[in-house]
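Good morning,

Both structures are done.
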Amino acid sequence: MPRAVYVLAIGIFAMVTSEFAVGGLMPEMAGGLGVTISQIGYLITAFAVAMSAGGPLMTVALVRIRPKPALMLLFAIFLAGNVLAAVAPSYPIMMVARVITGVASQAFFGVAISVAVQLSRPEVRGRALAVVLNGLMLGTLLGLPLSTLIGGQLGWRAAFWAVGALTVIAALATTAGVPRLGRADGGNSDLRQEMAVFKNGRLWLALSTSTLIIGATFAAFSYLSPILTQVTGFASESVPLLLVGYGAATVIGNHIVGRLADQHTIGVLLSGLILNTIFLAGFAIFAHRSVPAVIAMLGVGLVGVTMNPAMAVRVQRVGNPGPLVNTVHASFITLGVIIGSSAGGLVIDGFGLRAPLWLGVGLAVLGMVSLVPELVTRARSSTESPAQERVEASTAH
């Protein structure tokens, strides 16, 4: 495995740590900027919108630049956004900072994955991409609680300074560890064929399921810190440790789902949605009791975003494994983040801090409903196959 693949994971780790930092520092940031917790939640939404809309545009703008200089430029933009966040004197400036970092983060993901593919032999490309994307899982497991801990001890601005320092380290490692490469083939000879798959209604249904799964999870995840401190009653110093537990649950769940996704795709998605509905509802009902609340929170980590491997397998089977389908899928996943975080902020204003958990329940139920056509089709296929076999057997006789 090329050393550069591991270096790229450091960059993604920095990006994800910045993305999730707000979720662990919501009370502190609300107090420091003089706004409500729900308004801080919109910073998560802004980051996601910037990733979904601005990231692809930034990637297109960099298409004529060689990969390594493109990575360095994105590091510079991302660093500028985090420095602006660290010194932001007001909420509007913080919003601008989140948009800048969101655009740079999404573009970095795209370029880094492209570089990993170019550097790796065809037979190990899947492993190489898994190593690069480990930065995402480690961002949840380590980056989020560390930024929350730093912010809690030294002030929320210190967390963004820390991400800035991590960005510099990642950029230096990239300078030393990633070789200069030519531009990947950006030909569009298959674009019309890739576009044609979007006429398939089953693909849009699969994309919608992914949005609902992520939306249900992020309705809860975006507001874990205030729920755990203001409803459950944990001290703010305990939140980083709890978030480590949540991150560990996502790592375990991702490993399990990854092993089952190929052969039991729909079963994994349905089971995950059922369990997530139970955990979210349990969290909402018992949020005031520490032990049940923590168990439910870990359950959400175990069966929430960890559905990603099964989601990707389903979308690629219904559509194709081409870059356009996967990019659109990523946008639908980001849409789930937007829906969960923004709608969660809205319901908090009207119904309190338990409301995002109930919103998550509703979105998970809709996710199960979106699987019904697929389940019906599979049921019909399973009943028709034996009948067809009997007809063929009688014809043979």
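Second structure follows.
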Amino acid sequence: MDTTQRPLSDFGPAVFDPADPVALTQALVRCPSVTPHEGGALALLDAVLSAEGYTVHRPVFSAPGMPDVENLYARLGTEGPVLVIAGHTDVVPVGDEAAWTRDPFAGSVENGILHGRGACDMKGGLAAMMAASLRFRRENPDSSGSIAFLITGDEEGPAVNGTVKLLDWAHQRGERFDHCLLGEPTNPASMSDMIKIGRRGSLTGKLTVNGKQGHVGYPDLADNPIRGMVRLLAALEATPLDQGTRHFDPSNLEVTTLDVGNPASNVVPAQARAVFNIRFNDVWTPETLAAEIERRLRDAAGNSIRYELVVQPTNAVAFMTEPGPFVNLVADAVEAETGKRPALSTTGGTSDARFIKNYCPVVEYGVVGQTMHQVDECVAVADLVTLERITRRLLGTYFAAQHKA
């Protein structure tokens, strides 16, 4: 894997100003960095940050059975406080490229919209925050404190050789963070909508009910596992797992697959299988939730249903950054630039914030995410400009507040 530092002029027909959030987003989108391939994205950011005086590292992490993944850590400044901006440059596959109305890696801009895979998830958010950081330091060269970037190429994949290892790598080198801003696309419809201060956990279970195969005309000689499966799944969903908490919605269980693998209508199958996923709030840990699922199944099965439950290991736990000074600083910056105070939310899927929260308080804020992972993914140019302004305002108030403290 090539981690050689390259000049910025390598990344386009002309050198662009990386403090321009639109130009930087376009340059990033043009890097085909589909997980786990670096695709030139981290090399681009290395060139950008090195040219601005950052010390840049690009560690590569490995694990058995997993692809090697390149990551990036950069820092400008030697004293605290340290505000780290986190994100990922890897993107999901384009799918059916013929279904796209534009080249998914061209980064074209038409009618105020920037098109391409990763435009909103999350190259646009990362580019806008980086552009803001560059401009802030240019305008405030004597500002106290440090700005760091923690960027992975493994967020959309297994998340084994990415942020979780990059954090440990940085910690082992003596790096300490005071707060983190993660640029995931948090806004549902407009740039004033939402800040994420936490995330639900995710737990997946695989349930198998064993019966006895036989002829449907001789049910006394067979044991249909579908009846047992229906009963067990009903028991899992009969009673809500909880009523939610102050900042979290109720935990939610969804059955995602149900299969008996039986092509014949006159055969009772021998086995029924189901997979379910639970997005859980801070009422539960993975261990207590797994115990509750097992209890419900055991009570429903009694002595008549033979089943097996396998709960998959998870590193996605529920967490929350308590509202306080840092959360308020982010909300204040959003309100100042958009005219509306954003809601504080814990909705949605998981993110790398689940790893970062072990090292410092983390808040997520980014662009509108309506097209993430979709064909014709895109982001509004105006949203990139707004996010750059919000981030630059936040940096000013953050370092001023920390200096006074």
